[in-house]
Design brief:
Blueprint lengths: L11 E4 L7 H14 L6 H12 L3 E3 L2 E2 L15 E12 L5 E9 L4 H12 L3 H9 L3 H9 L16 E6 L8 H12 L4 E6 L2 E4 L3 H6 L7 E7 L3 H14 L1 H19 L12 E4 L1 E4 L2 E8 L14 H30 L1 H11 L5 H12 L4 H17 L4 H21 L14 E5 L4 H5 L6 E6 L7 H9 L3 E3 L13 E5 L4 E4 L3 H23 L14 E6 L5 H6 L5 E5 L1 H5 L7 H15 L4 E4 L27 H6 L1 H17 L13 E5 L5 H18 L6 E5 L2 H5 L1 H5 L4 E4 L1 H9 L17 H15 L4 E4 L7 H10 L3 E4 L4 H9 L3 H12 L4 H6 L10
Parallel strand pairs: 1-4, 3-5, 12-13, 13-14, 14-15, 18-19, 18-25, 19-20, 20-21, 21-22, 22-23, 23-24, 24-25
Antiparallel strand pairs: 2-3, 4-5, 6-9, 7-8, 7-9, 10-17, 11-15, 12-16, 16-17
Helix pairs in contact: 1-2, 3-12, 6-8, 6-11, 10-11, 10-14, 12-13, 13-14, 20-22, 22-23, 28-29, 28-30
């Protein structure tokens, strides 16, 4: 039985089988349909033609959207659409061929709605191909008027064919980090996946749409899927959704416990006198004393400078790509400094970049004739405003994240719009309306000793990062904070959320005494961190930190690191929009050496490729970048990248601290090359180093290689003849040994570096190095796991490099062990059948689980 023919909505005019002679003829024909229907006055036709002279209205995939100039909108009498179907196609611009000419007469924001529908439509190429040749107007009408999912859903209220119901049990609801995990899982599935809460429906592959559902703990949702492998897609999204519950509950309990401790009587200091007090919410415990510094509230004015849509679109695309790279770098950097949980903040922000609705809105504004920076800024503000208007404090915090991302993209579009914060030369208590997460993550705790914001909440990303950095902080202090005068002396208690202004001499003395007692206690606990990682039977394991810039060195040393075991130089390239010069790099490497004061520094040469791409290097796109031109392969093919870096390193070694100034050992700077697979690669790189060293009259430096692929581990004895040390990258070695892409969310739990096959490759590497008296380090993830570190020591690893915050626990575990027992444990681990069996051996280590 045929379905009834839908009634066409008013003001939608469709002409099938059109064959206009030119683009101009197509625009005139569509305009006449709009004139005949009373949507526009006749002069609007000329305005539509003028628009094509200043902007290309080709939207993509054969769809064009001619419309008039903004200044001529008074000629629009009623919103309407005129569609010319051109089965044979008509050339539009520079080889682009149009098949659907959708002429728009828009009042208010009707244009936005139409563009959103069209953007979704051009992603469905099968349906679009059918619309080009259909003989039924109602099919085109349905495509241009429906907002709900396409017909065919079997469940109620528009649910897709396969479905499951779930009650949100995340204590803080669906916030950005778990939502980003949902999105990542959904995007790896070919099927359509949607989430419904009541009558509200969101695409599971769209982060902002998910957040706009405003899901709170206890809300019921229906998650459904339809399309290719829909059952598998539903199973994967179900596992992703429910698998986060335990972690979210644990995180909420930890936050509640921390808040309770901070609010308790033991956490706070009480003044004896009566200073002026401004109260907010305690966000990060601790007492600090210093002058306040109020960040100036400079309004960024984004000028509207129209440009052709083609060049504007290119600039927006480039800015989005560069920002995506920046956020990946920031997440990676944050994970190494502060831990995986805090890094999730910036991974979640990265999911905002490809948001369809956000980009559609920006493009729509550009098509209307606005400049790219203005259009992007307006789109971000509108989307952030919608999140803030939902009345959910968690979503209001996500609006701040969106604005943070928007600000980064804006600075890429127009560098003059980059915002910065000027701080005084003395340590201060920073006062601000609010801080973006990336601003907070970049704070130097030696310069910003306290933080107070007028807005925000204790669960905001800014508060989380302040706690991790150990900066006392209060939030939600209100506008009175911003009216304070710079240099006002103050005492900030981040536990109770109070800022004491102009305290008396007696209160200052009391606060200093209280702080001194707290510091003495902390120093007593820290003294153990200064002890070497020497086992009970006298075997020493060198402990380094994974650090990316000189500012991170003091914290790493304070945590007990003996030097830097991995400086990842790709951050010099990822965190900026252009390639750093030789002098830029030299300044950074020299600063690293100065900060370390003679302690060892191992610098990894540029490791680009795989999951680390840099837009401004213009590298060719590869189908499988993990198996392509990355690491040393890239360096040998791009001397323009390799030689400036090597020159900068040798100059820094020549001009820095003499080799034996602090330790009496060899040169404090070592260079290692990533992604080595063969002896000829090592020989070629050595030749480049020898030539550059001779040209600069620089000292000889130890040259090492990364063991990241099974080929290098198997041939370790041959490679060891030609290099001075090895550093094993266990993350990549695991990926290549187990043939599991570490970015694949479905397989990620199986990519376990404690798999016996990986452990055997590590042991093989150590044996090969020992034959030539070379030392072996590990700078991958398991080096920072106390149990993993003990296994590595037992396998023969000499040096471990890790996130600074992992140093203390790893050193403590090694100090409590005996080398003979660790060797026996490692041998037993290599004999297991899988990673789970290896991890079960943790109970044998000192009789306790790791």
């Amino acid at each position: 039985m045929l379905a009834p023919t839908p009634i066409l909505p008013p003001r939608l005019l469709i002409q099938l089988g059109a064959a206009p002679a030119s683009k101009e003829a197509a625009i005139r024909a569509a305009a006449q349909l709009l004139v005949a229907s009373g949507c526009i006055d006749a002069p609007y036709e000329a305005s539509m033609l003028r628009r094509e002279g200043v902007a290309n209205t080709y939207l993509g995939h054969g769809v064009v959207i001619p419309h008039g100039m903004v200044d001529d909108r008074h000629h629009v009498r009623a919103s309407g659409l005129a569609v010319l179907q051109v089965p044979g196609g008509i050339e539009w611009h520079d080889g682009q061929v149009a098949h659907l000419v959708v002429a728009i007469a828009a009042q208010s924001d009707t244009h936005i709605t139409i563009l959103r529908r069209l953007t979704r439509l051009i992603q469905d190429e099968v349906r679009l191909a059918a619309l080009r040749i259909t003989t039924r107007k109602e099919e085109i009408a349905a495509a241009l008027t429906e907002d709900a999912p396409a017909p065919g859903a079997a469940g109620p209220a528009g649910d897709l064919r396969q479905r499951f119901d779930w009650t949100v049990d995340y204590p803080t609801g669906l916030h950005a980090r778990p939502a980003a995990h949902w999105v990542e899982t959904a995007r790896n599935c070919p099927a359509r996946i949607q989430v419904r809460h009541g009558a509200e429906v969101a695409d599971a592959k769209n982060l902002i749409a998910l957040l706009q559902l405003g899901l709170r703990c206890g809300d019921g949702v229906t998650i459904s899927a339809e399309g290719d492998d829909e059952a598998g897609a539903l199973a994967r999204i179900c596992a992703a959704v429910t698998g986060l519950s335990a972690g979210e509950k644990a995180a909420a309990k930890a936050a509640a416990d921390a808040a309770a401790r901070a609010a308790g009587p033991v956490a706070g200091w009480n003044p004896a006198d009566t200073p002026r007090v401004l109260a907010g919410l305690g966000a990060s415990p601790g007492l600090t004393i210093g002058p306040i510094h109020v960040l100036s509230q400079t309004e960024v004015t984004v000028r509207d400078e129209p440009e052709p849509l083609t060049s504007g679109g290119d600039r927006l695309h480039a800015a989005l790509a560069a920002t995506e790279g920046q956020l990946r770098a920031l997440a990676d950097d944050t994970e190494r400094r502060l831990g995986k949980t805090d890094a999730g903040i910036f991974r979640a922000q990265g999911e905002l970049i490809p948001d369809t609705d956000l980009i559609t809105l920006a493009c729509q504004l550009m098509v209307e004739g606005h400049g790219v920076a203005f259009a992007w800024n307006q789109a971000v503000e509108r989307m952030a405003g919608r999140l803030s208007a939902l009345g959910n404090p968690v979503l209001a915090a996500r609006a701040a994240d969106l604005r943070d991302v928007g600000r980064r993209v804006l600075a890429q579009i127009d560098p003059s719009l980059k915002s910065g914060h000027d701080l005084p030369d003395v340590p201060c208590i920073l006062i601000a309306p609010d801080l973006a997460p990336s601003d907070t993550a970049g704070l130097d705790p030696t310069r910003v000793i306290g933080l107070a914001t007028a807005q925000g909440g204790p669960t905001s990303h800014t508060a989380i990062l302040a706690r991790t950095l150990g900066i006392p902080a209060l939030v939600a202090g209100g506008p009175a904070l911003l009216a304070l005068e710079n240099h006002t002396p103050a005492i900030l208690d981040g536990g109770t959320g109070r800022l004491y202004l102009d305290p008396s001499a007696a209160d200052l003395a009391s606060a200093r005494d209280w702080s001194a007692r707290q510091r003495a206690k902390a120093e007593e606990e820290a003294r153990a961190r200064a002890l070497p990682a020497r086992t009970r039977d006298g075997h020493a394991v060198a402990i380094g930190a994974n650090v990316n810039n000189p500012e991170q060195v003091p914290f790493a040393l304070d945590q007990g690191a003996e030097g830097v075991g991995l400086m990842r130089t790709e951050f010099l390239f990822l965190e900026r929009g252009d390639t750093p010069t030789e002098d830029d790099q030299y300044a950074t490497y020299r600063a690293m050496l100065d900060a370390l004061a003679g302690r060892p520094l191992i610098v990894r040469a540029l490791d680009i490729g795989g999951d680390k791409q840099v837009a401004h290097l213009h590298l060719p796109r590869e189908e499988n970048p993990f198996l392509g031109v990355r690491g040393a392969r890239l360096l040998l093919r791009r001397p323009d990248l390799m030689e400036p870096q090597l020159r900068a390193l040798y100059r820094a070694a020549r001009d820095g601290i003499p080799a034996d100034a602090a330790t009496g050992k060899g040169a404090p700077l070592s260079i290692m090359f990533p992604m080595i697979t063969s002896v000829p690669e090592v020989l070629a790189l050595r030749a480049h180093c020898d030539r550059i060293r001779a040209e600069l009259d620089a000292p000889e430096l130890p040259l090492g290689i990364m063991i990241e692929v099974p080929a290098a581990a198997i041939q370790a004895d041959a490679l060891a003849r030609h290099c001075d040390f090895f550093s094993i990258g266990t993350n990549d070695l695991t990926q290549y040994a187990l043939a599991i892409d570490r970015q694949n969310t479905e397989l990620a739990p199986e990519a376990d570096s404690l798999h016996p096959a990986v452990l055997r490759l590590i042991h093989l590497t150590c044996e090969g190095a020992a034959r030539h008296k070379r030392w072996v380090g590990v700078c991958g993830g398991i080096a920072g796991d106390p149990f993993g570190a003990c296994l590595l020591a037992g396998l023969g690893v000499d040096e471990l490099s890790m996130t600074p915050r992992d140093v203390a626990s790893v050193e403590a575990r090694l100090r409590a062990s005996e080398m003979g027992a660790l060797r026996a444990l490692a041998a037993r681990a290599c004999a297991q059948e899988d990673a789970a069996a290896v991890r079960a051996l943790a109970v044998l280590l000192d009789g306790e689980p790791a």
